[in-house]
Amino acid sequence: MKHFTLRSAVALFGYVSFLAAAGTAAAQIGPVQPVLVQPTGNPEIPHDRPNFQEDYSVPMDVYVNAQGKVTNVVVTQSTSNVEADGAAASFMRDRQFLPAVNESGEAMDALVRVNVNMFKRGSKKVARVTIKPPPVALELDRVQRMTCADFLWEVERMHKEAKIRDTSFEQTPYMSALLYKQKRNVPIEVESEFWDKWTDMHEKVVKRCDKQQTRMYFTDVLMPALDGTLPASETVTASSVSD
Question: Which class is 32-132 in CATH?
Answer without folding.
Answer: alpha beta
